[in-house]
Amino acid sequence: MFLQYLKFATLKVKPHDNSFKFIGNASSLPPRLPDLSWIMRRAHDNEPSVNYTLVCLSYRGYWTSHDRPSEPGINLDSQAALQWIAQLHESRPGNADQEKPTVLLWGQSIGCGFATNLAAKGKFPLNVKLNGIILETPFTNVRAMLQALYPQKWLPYQYLWPFLRNHLDSWTNLGMIAKRFPDTPPGIYIVEAGKDELVPANHGEELFQRCQQVGLPVERQKVRGALHNEAMVRVSGKQALAQSISTAATRAREQDLLGKGEDVNDAGKGLT
């Protein structure tokens, strides 16, 4: 998984939905598995017509992954994981009536930057399509976080952003995503921690407004009382994330039906 969740999800109706998750900074996969399993089971309960696969990528330097973590390196890893998903579905072709699998990228904290990096700049194989992006406890970019963490003007950190090796600019990426997918823009699902002690509350609001500005369908939820790393731990947070996955799956199915010229009720329900 990535530095913070970039859960990579792919969805296929009824066939299959793949979720690709990018985890947070200094995070490892095994402790997250019980919560991830709960969320995916609830998502299936919400939308039984969809089969889900959750793909989690371990960051370089964490768990069994080698090398040192960096934005360019993890971008390459995420591209390789996406290609693996495409190959997985090539080996499971199903039948001609099945829609091609769709991908839901799911990032948490730093992982949101890698999720939007992949959506904005990654190469998507022809046999998969991007349907949505979950941004769990996101920040706008690393520069803004430097200013938030070190607001004192006499400290040098916030002035060193031109020398950063990692930028993770989700705000800019959202504009690129809108331009890249003008006909079928992916839905954006923002899930914030109500008492986030790391990311200022205005970051989620700015990303929400950015989506509206560039024309991306967006839904925003806040987990009351949750700290930065508790959004997925609290039951209300799990439910919010599961609902976002279910909504993305429903939206994928509705888009497929619309593409076939069939009638669809409540297309894009829950997104503005």
Write up this protein.
By secondary structure, the chain is an alpha/beta fold. The chain has one domain: Alpha/Beta hydrolase fold, catalytic domain (Rossmann fold), CATH 3.40.50.1820. 38% of the residues lie in helices and 18% in strands. The chain has seven helices and seven strands. The protein has helices at residues 33-46, 71-90, 110-121, 142-149, 170-180, 201-214, 235-259; strands at residues 6-13, 17-22, 50-56, 102-108, 129-136, 187-193, 218-223. Strands 1, 2, 3, 4, 5, 6 and 7 form a seven-stranded mixed beta sheet that branches. Helix 2 crosses helix 3. The longest helix has 25 residues, at 235-259. The radius of gyration is 18 Å and the shape is globular. 45% of the residues are buried. Residues 1-6 and 8-15 have low confidence and may be disordered.
The percent of residues in helical segments reads: 25-40%
Distance between the termini: 30 Å
Label the structural class.
Answer: alpha/beta
CATH class: Alpha Beta
H/E order of the elements? Answer: EEHEHEHEHHEHEH
Main beta sheet: strand number and arrangement? 7 strands, mixed
| Backbone CA Rg | 18 Å
Report the average pLDDT across residues: 83
CATH superfamily: Alpha/Beta hydrolase fold, catalytic domain
Global morphology:
globular
As for the number of domains, it is: 1
Q: Can you count the helices?
A: 7
User: How much beta, percentage-wise?
Assistant: 15-25%
Number of strands: 7
Residue ranges: pLDDT <50 for 5 or more in a row? 1-6, 8-15
Oligomer: single chain
CATH topology: Rossmann fold
CATH architecture: 3-Layer(aba) Sandwich
